[in-house]
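Annotators were shown the component list below and the corresponding predicted structure, then asked to write short factual statements about the assembly.
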Amino acid sequence: MTMPVSGRPSFLVIALALAVASLGLVHAAVPRVVATGTIRGTVTMPASSAGRRPSVSRPGGTSAADRQQDALDRQTSVVYLDNMPRGMAGEFVERKARLDQRGQRFVPHIVAIGVGGTVDFPNGDPFFHNVFSLSDVKSFDLGRYATGKSKAVRFDKPGVVRVFCDIHAHMSAFVFVFAHPYFDVTDGQGRYRIDGVPAGTHALVLWNETIEPETRQVIVPDGGEVEVNLAIAAAPAPK
Amino acid sequence: MRTLRLLTATALVWLALPAARAGADLLPSRPITFGDGRVVVSGDVALSFGSADVGYFNLFDYSHDAFNVLSLSLSAEFRATDRIAFVGQVLDEVSLRGRDPDPSDRHVFYPYALYVRVRPAADTPFTILAGRIPPAFGAFARRDYGEVNALIGLPLAYGYSTTMRSEPPPSRRELTLNRGGGWAVRYPRATATVGPQGLPLVSARRWDTGVSAQWDGSKVQAGVAVTMGTLSSPRTDDDNDGKQISGRVGVTPTASFSVGVSGSRGEYLSDPGETTEYGTVGWLPEPARSATHRQEALGLDAEYSLGHVVVRGEVVASRWDVPFQNGDPTLQLDALGSSIETRIALSPRWSMALRGDRLGFSRVTAANAAIRTWDANVLRLEGAVGYLVRRNVRLKAGYQYNWRDGGREQSIGLVGAQLLYWF
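Structure shown to annotators:
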């Protein structure tokens, strides 16, 4: 699946999608056993520390802990199958996720859900935040709300949604919305694991905010595991 | 000038084009770092273009007009250690239209901020700043980048040039003859063809030099500063025979409401005998020569926000001790600036803002023996619509109407647009 970040589907694409979806529903109605396997591995990245914008007006500056967390956020990646595997349409992938606003940052930096899933945005800071997105996939503005309050957004289209805070310009996060269940967000050690992948050859995509997405072919054995370790060659200057 | 406008239009298109294409990051969208994160560089570009302000209501430093200026700012922070950082910001400004008394002022480059920041304890929000530092007074000049200004013009208290100067007027008569002419305060009014701009109540475009200590807690914020100049006349060196002490205490009882009170006191007059481009600062007769002449100011600022609405109000009361070179008795001249503004987010991309602004002055006996305000009162209404092209590119279009009870142009309406980009 190519993750759209902008643009609208044409009528032809919509018609095609409906046709494919209806075929999938017919398929899903017939019980069948699909051989599956697992893709797992580690994403490694050179240490980098992209900084927050210097604020000459506010005296506080940023702490060493902030900078460490900024660097960790940059290393978080998403690994996913580019396309829905053949014959797997109709899989239930909706999930619920939570993006906290804590210490003037979104925690975690990246969440991934299925189409139709909901993300909660609770404010854990003792001051206002204002979560918004200008994405074509989902555009919203939750307004300012205080400590302990939470607002939720439902995501109905697949794609990447970049989320910001209108008050704190250095805050940003990503919401990935998938039309299939074959994705994972790396943990603090860069590890990922995608279970239940139909056996066969798939295009595996590595996404990290510091690089263009990278795709490679992966063969998933029937009932087995394939280890795919991915390296982000260099961390270029942030765009 | 026509070439300059063409260049400006080209720059506008250049900035807008990459913004219109999602994913085409030709310009950086977040700070650039070097040296393993120890050096962070960020910047802003603000291009404002609008009607000719023939009444000079929007003139700020270097005779630049807020509605017709290209402003580039570059900030850098070098984190020497976890507790010590050096912060600097330079401004490069090009006047696109307006009053240009000196061609060299059309394009200026100057340091806005340059200070060392020391954080004695890593886990407390206490910092010490030394150098060219943000003012410990009021709210507008210390507001953070994303929220600096929802409109195009500055609040009157922070930008409008009054007829006050940092040198003594020749006489009371000369002072009042200049009413409404703060863009060029000429002595003697009858014959002088040029003069310097008068002082605003608080300079938002120049910061003062000194030391400050700040506590930036979530519920209580407090700061105190000792600086070379005063709010209206910041300095890099002490040529006004005295320091200013200023401070602000703010409380945030709930996340939706904050309020702060500020005060300042400092000597603002330039040393007699100092030569400026407009002549030599006049000597004062005794007893005024031995007396101290201060600017004192009090400020009150408040902010309420909820949902998609932010409302801010600010009042600045300033008093100057004004001696006269001909021996007229020293006067205490007052000015009161008050503004209220609101910003409403209409959608993720669209917003609108409104500001009502007033600047009033105390009364004195004028040249013709009538009792009048020492400068002409000003009233301003301004509104703007903002469109967020992308996260860090905002386009504003606005209208501003000004009334003044004196001076060359007593009312004027201005239309303007501003393109703002930051990373």
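Statements collected:
1. Chain B is about 5% helix and 50% strand.
2. Chain B has a mean pLDDT of 88.
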